[in-house]
Amino acid sequence: MSVPVPQPPALPLLGNVRDVDPDNAIASLVHLSNKYGEIFKLTIIGLEIYIVSSVELLNELCDENRFHKKVSIALKQVRNGVGDGLFTAFRGEHNWEVAHRALVPAFGPIGIRDMFDEMYDIATQLVAKWARMDEDATINVTEDFTRLTLDSIALCAMDTRFNSFYSEKMNPFVDAMVGFLVESGHRAKRTTLEHLWNRTANRQYQADIALMKKVARQVVDRRRANPSPKKDLLNAMLFGKDPKTGEKLTDESIMNNMITFLIAGHETTSGMLSFASYYLMKHPEAFRKAQEEVDNVVGNGPVKVEHMSKLPYLEAVLRETLRLSPTAPLFSLSSNEDVTGPTVLAGKYYIPPGASISALLTAVGRDPAVFGTDADEFKPERMYGENFAKLPPNAWKPFGNGVRGCIGRPFAWQEGILALALILQNFNLRLANPSYELQIKQTLTVKPDGLFMKATPRDGIDPIKLEQKMFAGLKDESNHANGVTLVGPVTGPQKPITVLYGSNSGTCEGLTQVLARNAASHGFDATIKSMDAAVDHISSDQPLVIITASYEGKPPDNAGTFCEWLKSKSSDMKGLKYAVFGCGHHDWVNTFQKIPKLVDSQLAALGASRICPRGESDVAEGTIFDDFDQWQDNVLWPQLGAGESAQSERGIDVHISTNSRASHLNHKGQDALVVTNDILTSPGEPEKRHMQFRLPSSLTYKAGDYLALLPLNNIKTVSRVLQRFGIPWDAVMTVKAGSYSTIPSDREIPVSVALAAYVELNTAATKKNLATIASFVQDSATKALIVNDPAPHTGATPSVLDVLETFPEVNLPFGVFLAMLTSIRIRQYSISSSPLVDPTVATITYSVASHDLQHLGVATNYLKSLQPGMKIQVMVKKPKTPFHLPSDEKVPIIMACAGSGLAPFRGFVQERTAKLEAGSNTTLGEALLFVGCRDPKSDKLFADEFERAEKLGAVKVYYAFSRAVDQSENCKYVQERLWRERAEVSRLFKAGAQAYVCGSAAVAKGISETAARIRIEADSQKGETVTQEAALKWWEDLRGVRYAVDVFD
Fold it and tell me: Is residue 192 flagged as an active site residue?
C-alpha cells in the first residue's frame, strides 16, 4: 500500500521557496525533516526534490543498481571552472572514467603513505605557529585549519607552496578560488535575468576562472620542464594511465582535477577538523581519552606515518564528528535510466522516474532508530571498533557513495588524524568563549561559524623545544608554565598565589575577584585563571585556591577539561598546597557539592596538602558571600600565615570625572529583534508576560533550551545610587588596572553605564560588608545598629544600597561600595516555543518580579521595558541535564508545572502539534500536562492554544486553580491534580513515560512527595510496604533517568 510523501504547503508557481533559507538551507531542511519525518518533498519553481533523512531509506538509495549520483544545481555552476572533474562530472562522461581509473592508485594506501612527509611539513607549520602565539591569544579555528588543508593539498597535488602560515594575505590563486566558489553558489540561486544584470560579478567570475586555469597550466608546464621522480599526485595525473584503455589524462582534465582537488580537498577537511575541535573542547572526557591515546602511542617524539593506524580513538572522534556534522551534508541521486515506472522506497513511498532524491546526512546521522535516544550527543565510543562495525549498512556516508564517493577520503583521513595527533600531543585546547554553542556557516560545504579557541602548550613547551621534538624527537624537559598575573595597586614584596574558578553564572568567578582583592592586604599577589586554563600549569611553589560550583553533578563549562585532567593524572602532586571552596544547591541531593568534593579528594589522592578544610556554601540559603567571607577570613588566611586581619575591605581605586559621557558596553551574544512583548494576565494578578524574538539564522535552538541574556539594572535603582553618592548622571569614572573589578579598567566609562551594566546593585549585604560600613561612622550606637539590625522592623536581608540609604550618615567611599558589589549575572529563561513552528522565532514566558516600588527584579523588569523593534544580545544555552522531548517520539510524556513554569511545555506541545499538523508519518506517544494557576479567567495562559492542541491529540491538559477549585476537581495545587489523576499517570509511567517538572522549588518538592505517595499506594495494593523515605529516594534516583527537573525561584 502506497503512502503519500508529505510536503509543506506550497505557493503557486514558486512552490516551497519560502520554506528554505538560501543562506542556511541545511538548517531549513533539518527543520523540515524533524517536522515531516523520514521523507518529504519540496517543489522549487517547478523542480521536485525528495529529501530523505533515515538510515533505512538511505540504505536503499546506496544501491548502485537502482540509483546514481545526480549533479546538483550548485555543482553544475562549479563545472564552469572545473568541467568534467571527478567531483562534477555527469554520469557516463568519458574523461571522468579515465581519470577515476588512472588516479585511484594514487589515493591507495601506498600513495597516501608517500604523501605523509608533505602533510607533516604543513601540519608542523600550524603547530609551530600556535606555539609562538601568546598563551592567551585567540585562534580563529576555521581560518587556521583552512590554511592547513589548503597548503597540504597544494603541496601534494600541485607541488606548490602557498605558504599560508607566513602571510596574513592569501595567495592570489586562493582568492580566485574562494571568489569562484562563492559566486558559483550565488549563480545557482539566480534566474537567467539576474545573471544578465550582474555584469560586474560575471566579469570577476570569469577572471577568477582564468587565473585558476593559468596557475594550473603553469604547474603542469613547470613539472614537464623539470621532471621529478617523486611519486606524488601531480605525477600520477601527468603520467598515470587508465588500466582499462591505456589512455592518459588530457591537459584539460589534469587542470580540471587539480583545481577540483584543491576545492574539495581543503573545504571539507578543514570543516571536519574545526567541528572535531569544537566537540572535543565541549566534551572534556573525550578530549582526555584522545590525548591519552596520543601520549600512549606517540609519546614525546615526532608523529610518524606508522602511528596513523594505531590511533583508533582519534578515528572514532572523526567518525562521530562527521556523523553529527557532515561537512558535505547533502548528496543527490536519481534512479538509473533503465528503471521504468516509479521508484518505490521502503515498499510504500512512490518516487517519479528521474526525480532528484537528496540524502540529508545531517539528519540521517541522528536517526534514533539506529543511533539511539542519545543520537544528538557526541560519543566517540559509538564509532569505536566493533561498535562502528556493527552499524547497519550505509548508516555512515559522509564521503558519498560507491563509485562516485570521494576519491580523496584516505587523503583527508590521514591528514585529519595527523593534525589531531600533533595538536593533542602539544596543546590543551579550550573555547575562547566557554558558553559558545555551535553555529553553522554554509557555502558549498558547512563549517562552524564564529568558533574561536585558545591553545595552551603542554608541559611548558616553547617553540624551540617543539621543533626539536617534531623533527629530532628530543624529549622536552621543561615544566615551566607561564600565567598572566593581575598586578594590583600595592607596594612591598608579595608572595604569589594562584586562584582558579569554575563558573557558568559568574558567581564563583566573582568570588575569585573578592579573594584576589583581599590577597594583597595579606601579602599575596594573585593570578586568576579559569580551571581549564590551568591544565598542566599547576605549580607547587605557590598556594592554589580553587573556587567552583556543581551543575547537577557536572563541572562548569570552563572546568570540565581540568576535572578530566585531574582524574587521569598519574604523577603525584606532592609539595602543592591547596584549598577548595564549593558552591551548590541543596535541592540536588545526590550531587550536592560533587565537583568541589571531587577536586578536593583528587588533589589529596595525588599527594597535595590541604591548606585548610574545604569551604562550602548552599546558594539556596542566600548566604554565599557571608559563607565565603567567613571561610577566607577565619580559615584560609590564618592557615596561610597571612598576619593581617581583613575586617575592612580594600576599595577599588576609582577616579571620577564629569568631562565625558563615552559608552563602553561590552555584551556578548547575537542580536535578536524584539517582535512582541505582551502581558498575559488580567489586572490585579501577578504580572506574567510573553515575548517573541526574531533570531539570526545562525542561532538555533531546541524546545527545552534556554534563552540567556545579560540584563541592565533598572534606571530607578541606578538613580538611587547616584543620588546616595551625589554623582551627576553625566559623570564618568576610571577604574585603575589591577583593582580586580569587572568594570573595564584604565579607560573612562560613564558611572551610570557601569552601574547599569556591570554590577549587581541588589547585592545582599554580608556581615563583612556591614562591618566595613560601620567603620565609616563615629557614633557607637549607629555602628551597633548597622552590624546587628541593618533593616529595622523587616527581618529581611538588605542590600548594600538599602543599608546606605537607611543610614545616610555613613560616608562610604564610592570605590569601597563598588568593591562590595558582585558582577552582573547572565539570566536564563526557558524558551516557550518550538523551532518547528518557525526556526527564526523564539519566545519566553516569565513572571515580572517586584517586591515593592523600590525593589524591582533586575532581569524581568529589564525585559518588561523592551519595546517591539528593539534589539538585545541573546545566547541559546543547553540545559546541563537533558530537558528535551524524547528522541523516540513514541515514548509518552508527563509534564507538571505551575505559573510561568509552563514555558518549556508550551514549546513541547507546539512541537507535537506541528508534527501532527504536518501530516508526519511518525506516531506520537501520549502526553499529559498538569498546570497549576490561580483562576481560569485571569491567568490561564495560552488557553485557546492548548485547547486546539487537545483537539488534535497533541496533549491532554489537567488544571489546578488555587482560587477556583470548583473548576478543577477540587484540586488547589498542581500536585493535588497529579494525585487525583494518578491512575492515568501510573499507566503512562509503567509504559515508559518520561516525566518533566518545571517551577519553583516548592512545586518540585510537592511533585516529588506526590510521586512518592503514588508509589506507596501502588506497592500497598500489591501487598508490599514501602516507607516515605524509601519512596522519595526511589523518585530521586530516577532524576536524570526517567524524569527531568527545571527549578527556579
Answer: no
